[in-house]
Amino acid sequence: MIGRFLKQFAPRTLYGRAAAILLLPMLTLQLAVAAVFVQRHFEDVTAQMTNNLLLEVELVLRELERQSVSEVQEGFAEELKIELRSWDGVPSGNRMVFYDISGRTIMPLMRSRLDGLREIDLSDLDFVALGLMTAKGPIKLTVSRDRVSASNPHQVLVLMVFTGIFMTLIAYMFLRNQLRPIKRLSVASAAFGRGQRVALSPAGALEVRAAGQAFLDMRDRIERQIEQRTMMLSGVSHDLRTPITRLQLALELMEGPEVEDLKKDVSAMQMMVDSFLNYARDLAADPVEDVDLLALGAQLAERMTPPARFELAGVPRLCALRPVPIGRAIENLLVNAGRYGSESILTLHFEESGVRICVHDDGPGIPEAQRDAAAKPFVRLEVARGQNQGGGVGLGLAIAADVARLHGGQLVLSDSVKLGGLSADIRLPL
Ligand SMILES: Nc1ncnc2c1ncn2[C@@H]1O[C@H](COP(=O)(O)OP(=O)(O)OP(=O)(O)O)[C@@H](O)[C@H]1O
Ligand SMILES: [Mg+2]
After folding, report:
1. Could you tell me if 145 and 117 are in contact, meaning their C-beta atoms sit under 8 angstroms apart?
2. 40 within some domain
3. Long-range contacts of 100-103 (CB under 8 A, 24+ apart)
4. Mutational pocket test of ligand 1: of 273, 276, 332, 336, the residue with most ligand atoms within 8 Å of the beta carbon
5. Closest ligand, as measured to the CA of 378
6. Ligand 1 shell residues, CB under 6 Å
7. Largest CA distance in the chain
8. Of 64, 76, 81, 140, which residue is least crowded by CB atoms under 10 Å?
């Protein structure tokens, strides 16, 4: 309960937290020291000094009962460094400046000890002036201020604040150097999630360095694995082309009712191999670039028969993507929309956190339970539905989903609100 309440005020970033961890003890220590110091110095020391002075003032007052003002003044008042002069006796009130902390201790002390006291004037920080009723009438008594309170006591406080600020700055600089590698690591891993490769050299404290090195090893291993998998699949597909061609040639020479079915199967095999090889080639040869999705989308929508409607939401901007795979993914969705529906819309949503590429159609859609399956490679729902709209091998959605994942995003299938069929949505974080 209290923990959650305090959590609201805790800084969110690593920098903020480190600064808080650094500053809180320092501030607390300074405040505690300052409080004790003010108490000791401004109150106790001032009270002691004031009491000493009051003893002398009382002595002077007693002397005034026996001698005249000028005699006392020239006598030992002079030696005590107390100045006396006659006064018209009109009190002008107690005065001091508002930041005079020790003045607050001096005033009540004096008032409680001196009976004839009419006025205390501390407004001049160098002097204490007292208006007194004495045996010789009203007189003004002036002494130097440094006899009742320590001079320049604030120096210690000022010194404390400045060393505090200075040490904080130095600590912040050291801290920043320690935090920088962690920040770099987080940037590099976020980029890797989006399919980008950001250079990272492990640095900083031993543990941070180890985390950085572990990330690099992991990245290398994943990249190597992907590369090997693609290479193997490409190899197999490539090697299948020759036997498939040979089968096709052999089938051409044959005749009979079952030959037609075989021909269809073989050409389907060829299409599978070709689509996979095309996709593998796209991936291999394509670096991340600043892509103008607006132009790409418009061009792809135009190329469909019939052309897809093209719509834009948000402010368009360049996006760091792999243009050829992204183009193929969009094209796959548009081809599906054209194949399974009659009307289609391609919408680009440019949002704060990323971009959504959405293809709507007015076809039958995909039931929710089958959406996951439809996005798997070589899965065709048409076969189960018993209606073959021809052509496909079941790689279109799988490739679109793979391209989305490659960019750190995902493919989301849902019911289209716009046209009533399927809405296929490639969501990419940027
Ligand atoms: N817009 C759509 N409307 C209705 N069903 C769809 C739609 N898009 C895909 N499907 C269903 O999902 C299945 C898988 O789609 P996918 O694009 O992966 O393969 P395909 O279109 O059959 O073949 P390919 O795209 O490889 O030529 C399709 O067979 C189809 O049944
Ligand atoms: Mg398809």
Report:
1. no
2. yes
3. 100/125, 101/38, 101/42, 102/42, 102/43, 102/46, 102/148, 102/149, 102/150, 102/153, 103/149
4. 336
5. 1
6. 275, 332, 336-337, 340-341, 361, 363-366, 374, 379-382, 391-398, 421-422
7. 151
8. 81
Ligand 2 centroid – CA 22 distance (Å): 58
Atom 19 in ligand 1: residue holding the nearest Cα: 394
Last residue of a domain, one of 103, 126, 151: 151
Q: Look at 287 and 211; give whichever has higher pLDDT.
A: 211
Query: 94, 121, 151 — which closes off a domain?
Result: 151
> Domain range holding 389?
287-429
**pLDDT (tens digit per residue) in 93-103:** 788 888 887 88
Cα 358 to averaged position of ligand 2 atoms, centre (Å): 15
Residue 291 covered by a domain: yes
Q: Ligand 2 center to residue 336 CA distance, Å?
A: 4
- Quick check: is 209 in a domain? no
**CATH code at position 331:** 3.30.565.10
**Closest protein CA for atom 28 of ligand 1:** 380
pLDDT, tens only, 70-80: 888 888 788 88
Give the chain's domain count: 2
- Residue closest via CA to ligand 1's atom 25 equals 396
Residue 425, strand partner residues: 358, 412
Atom index in ligand 1 nearest the CA of residue 375 equals 18
Residue 117 lies in a domain: yes
What tokens were used for 22?
């650094």
CATH of the domain at 82: 3.30.450.300
What the block records as the tokens of 155 is 């120096």
